[in-house]
Amino acid sequence: MISRKKNVLSIILACALYLIFTWSLVEILPLNPLYVILTSTGLLLIANIILHLENRETQQSDKAIELIQAQTEIERLSYYDELTGLPNRRMLLKKMSQSMQDASDRHLHAALLFIDIDHFKTLNDTYGHEIGDRLIKETATRIKQFLPDEATLARPGGDEFGIVLPELKGEIEAVSEAVLGLAEQIRGALAVPFDFGNDFYHSSASIGVSIYSRGTAKITLSDMLRQADTALFQSKDTGRNVVSLFETHMQEEVNTRLAIEQDLRKALSREELRLFLQPQIDKKGKIVGAECLLRWQHPKHGLMSPALFIPVAENTGLIVAIGKWLLYQACSIITRLDADNQQMRISVNVSPRQFRQQDFVKQIKETLKVTGADPQKLILEITESLLMENVHEVIARMVELQSLGIGFSIDDFGTGYSSLSYLKLLPLRELKIDKSFVDGLPLDLDDGAIVGSILALARNLNLEVVAEGIEKEEQLDYLKASGCQLFQGYLHGKPVFCEELITTLLAR
Ligand code: C2E
Ligand code: CA
Ligand code: CA
C-alpha cells in the first residue's frame, strides 16, 4: 500500500515537472499556448484517473480485510461463548448434527452429554458474579482434561455445558459403558472443591447422557436434545451430583409430570383441591389438634396424594397460590372450632418456596385478620431443608411470625440436616418425630435410641414433641413410656375430609 502511494506521488511530480518544462518551451520556443494548456490538462487528467484507480484498489483491499475481520467476529459471536471461548449452543447443534450424520453413514455411534452445575444460582448470588464466572471457567478446564481431541465441549448457556462425542465405535453396550465411565470421571472431578486462593467453594454437577446409535436412525437432532435434557432432569431429580443415561421410560415420566403440571394450574380455579385433616391426640386419647393434608380430586385420576403433586407445585411455583388457599382454609377452621370452644391446634405444612416468598409474613397477617383466627392455634410445619440457605433470614422471619403468636414445628425431624447450634436459635414450639423412626419401635434398638435422644433434646430445649406414623399399640406404649406427649397416626385416625373431622369434633 505504501509503495502504491509512492507511485502516485511520483506521477504527480512527473506531471508537474512536465508542466514546468512545457511552459518553459512556450516561453523559449514559439509554440501555441493553447496546445501547451491542452496537453498539460490532458496529462493532469490522466494522472488523476491513475490516482483514482489506485485509491479504489487500496480501498477495495482494505474493505476486503475489514470484511474478513467482521466475518470472523460474527462467526466468533454466533458460534462461540464470550466468557469461556467455548463453542456455544449453535455450534453444539451443528457438531451434533454432523456427528449424527456421520454415525449413520459410517455405522458408528455418537453421544450427547448435558452437564449442569448444581445450585449454581445460589453460589452466584451468595459469592457474586466474579466467583460465578471463575467457577464456570474452571469447570470448563476440568471437563476438558477428560475429553478426546475429536470431542466438542460447548457452553450452551448459563451454568450448562454440552459435550458431543462423535465417531464412537463398537457395540452399543460397550459404547454406553465407556461414555458413562467418562461422564462419571467428569462428575467426580467437578465434585472436588474449587480452590480460588482465598477460599474453597463446594460445588457439584448433574449429568444427562443420550446416545445416538446407528440402529436408531429415526431419531432427530431435537429428539437427541430432549433425551439428554430428560436424563439431566432425572439426575437433578434424584438428588443431583449424579449421571443418568436416557431411557425410554424417563420420557413417559416427564410427560406425566408435564400433564400434572398443566392440570394443576387449573385445579385451584376448578375447586379440585381438598383439605384433609389428620387428628393429633394427647396421652389421654383426646383429640387436641389436627394436621392439614392436601388431596387433589383429579377429574381423571381420582383422589391424588400430595406426594405426587406437591413436588410439581414446588417446582413450578404453584405452591404459592395453593399455600395461600390452604392457609385461608386452615385459619377459617380455627375460627369455626374456637366459636364452639374447642381447644384445637391446627398444623399447616409450609414448603420452603412458600416460606421464602417476600410477602409471606404479610400474607399470614392478612389471613389472620380476614378470618379472625387465633394465631396461638396455628402451627406452621417447616422442614430442615429450609434451614440450609440464608438461615439468618429464615430465623428473622420466624421470629416475626412467632411474635404474632404463631407456633413453629420441625417436620420429619432427624431425617435431614439439622445443626444443634441453629436449633437453639430457632423460635420453635415443637419437633415431629418422623414415621421412619417410629416404624421400628419397640424392637429396633437404633430407632429406640433416636427417639430417646429426640425426646431428651426436646425436654432440654423446652419443646413439645409429636410422634408421627403410629400404627400399632406397641409403638404408642413405647412412646408414652419414653415421655412423648402428642401422637398422630393411622392408629388414631387416617386423614379425612376436613368437614368429617369438624363434624365429629363439634358433636363431642
Ligand atoms: P408429612 O407432612 O410428613 O405428612 C405425614 C404423612 O404421613 C401424610 O401423608 C400422612 O397421611 C401420612 N401418615 C400419617 N400417619 C400415618 C401412618 O400411621 N401410617 C402411614 N403409612 N402414613 C401415615 P400425605 O397426606 O400423603 O402427605 C405426604 C406429604 O405431602 C406430607 O408429609 C407433606 O410433606 C406433603 N404435604 C401434604 N399436604 C401439604 C400441604 O398442604 N403443603 C405442603 N407444602 N406439603 C404438603
Ligand atoms: Ca407435616
Ligand atoms: Ca412428617
Bound molecules: ligand C2E, calcium ion
What's the story with the biggest beta sheet?
A: 10 strands, mixed
Beta-strand residue percentage: 15-25%
Number of helices: 18
User: Average pLDDT, to the nearest integer?
Assistant: 89
- Overall CATH architecture of the largest domain: Alpha-Beta Barrel
Structural class: alpha/beta
CATH class of the largest domain: Alpha Beta
Tally of distinct domains: 3
Say how many strands there are.
17
Task: Give a description of the structure.
- This protein has 508 residues and is an alpha/beta fold.
- It has helices at 2-28, 33-79, 89-106, 120-127, 129-144, 172-190, 221-237, 248-267, 306-316, 318-339, 352-355, 360-371, 391-402, 420-425, 435-439, 445-461, 473-482, 498-506; strands at residues 109-117, 152-157, 160-168, 194-195, 200-201, 205-213, 243-245, 273-281, 287-298, 302-304, 345-349, 378-382, 407-413, 430-433, 464-467, 486-487, 496-497.
- Helix 1 (2-28) runs antiparallel to helix 2, helix 4 (120-127) crosses helix 5 (129-144) and helix 8 (248-267) packs across helix 9 (306-316).
- The longest helix has 47 residues, at 33-79.
Outline of the structure:
This protein is of the alpha/beta class.
Keywords:
single chain; 508 residues; alpha/beta; Alpha-Beta Plaits; TIM Barrel; 3 domains; 10-stranded mixed β-sheet; 5-stranded mixed β-sheet; 18 helices; 17 strands; 55% helix; binds ligand C2E; binds calcium ion
